[in-house]
Amino acid sequence: MKIAEINSKIKYQKESLLKHSLYDKVKTIEDLHQFLECHVYAVWDFMSLLKALQSKLTCTTTPWFATENTQTRYLINEIVLAEESDLTIDGRRLSHFEMYIEAMQSCGAQTNGLNNFLHHVIETKNVFIAIKQSDLHPNIKDFLDFTFRIIEEGKIHKIAAAFTFGREDLIPNMFTEILKNFQRNFPETDLSKLIYYFERHIELDADEHGPMAMQMITELCKDDDQKWNDVEETSILALEKRKGLWDAIEEKIEANLELVN
To answer: 260, CA 20 to 30 Å: which among 58, 85, 133, 229?
Structure first.
């Protein structure tokens, strides 16, 4: 029942994302490149949410000790397996982030900006400094900062909320809208790797990871009303930050269009 209540409370934010005007703005290959070069940051920080959950719900240090909740341990390990070591379109094993990078490269999108940012994260040893000092759009900075603030706070149910309602539960419908756009506007462009990435996410999240993540939230919150309130608040913020990311991409596409004209 609590999950249904959360879905009711976040309905407005979810619908705003699913009806966002960005989807109709990706009309040229340059628009597509702009989309990918911004969206890739969400693909990257998703992996950090995932691994933060794994580090808290399982034992990832030595000596090993069994964690208390065997169900959440199973759920997160199952999700990690596919997200970090999935089959590519040609039968190799890569993380979804690496698959996305390959898809970007195959259709001509640039990865230099992301690589420089990741190098700066390593160099500074502080993701918050790297975000602040980057030349990313302010909304993308806010998006990333929110993710890592939730991780740094360390409350498992909040991390799970950002992961579940801000990502896993949202992705199937949202990516379906994106795929429709790609197939309509780029029928002659080889987007096989990119389409495979989106179709794989839709399949996994709708059939397996989404329900698993919901079950994980239920296990973590149980009958604790404060935790459920935290989940609601975090989920709304996560969706608002995602809308900010979409707004940023749309703004950059429109700015490029003005330059061309």
So the answer is: 133
